[in-house]
Write a structure and sequence with these properties.
Length: 181
């Protein structure tokens, strides 16, 4: 009896399925006592505005969900376990000039098995954006970057988004790189 290549492949176990995170989040919200399951923002139409100039002439801003390091908040270093004490709850702004800020991501859920968060450029690419300016791929950076809080309701996120938009307009950003962690 001939063996097909399908028979020689190594398959994962039958119970090795993707984590149904959307359903789990809905159930989690119900378990916390909210009257309704969590509902993700979903729009039939998304506004799009083409960039009005070439990227090499554009002023680019940066928005991150990384948190400023808080020495009193416990372990926040690379590979640190989840740390709710390191969360921030208001939009913040910091200069894009040297020195680079000390930002961390221990306050968010990410795959700690396959990533250690040791390379800040994976969640806060300010150094890479500076290099892009030096190479002429980006015209300039805005004078500051902004932090977007996580773990928020739709209502709070809408307020944060309005504040971030105001700040980016104040910085005269032509485009913004949003790096959620």
């Amino acid at each position: 009896m001939a063996t097909s290549t399908l028979d020689t492949k190594s398959f994962t176990p039958e119970d090795d399925l993707p984590i149904p995170y959307m359903q789990r989040t809905r159930e989690y919200y119900l378990a916390l006592g909210y009257g309704n399951p969590y509902r993700w923002a979903h729009y039939e139409e998304v506004p799009f505005t083409p960039l009005g100039r070439s990227l090499s002439q554009a002023r680019v801003g940066l928005i991150t969900t990384a948190a400023p390091y808080l020495p009193e908040a416990g372990d926040q270093g690379p590979g640190a376990p989840y740390n709710a004490a390191a969360k921030f709850y208001t939009v913040y702004s910091t200069s894009t000039e040297e020195p680079a800020p000390d930002l961390r991501i221990s306050h968010v859920g990410y795959d700690r098995k396959h990533s250690s968060a040791a390379d800040i450029n994976t969640y806060f690419p300010l150094a890479r954006l500076r290099e892009a300016v030096q190479a002429g791929r980006i015209g300039a950076l805005t004078p500051r970057f902004h932090g977007a809080p996580t773990n928020r309701s739709h209502r709070a996120t809408e307020g944060d988004a309005a504040e971030l938009l105001r700040l980016c307009q104040e910085d005269a950003a032509d485009a913004v790189v949003l790096v959620p962690s």
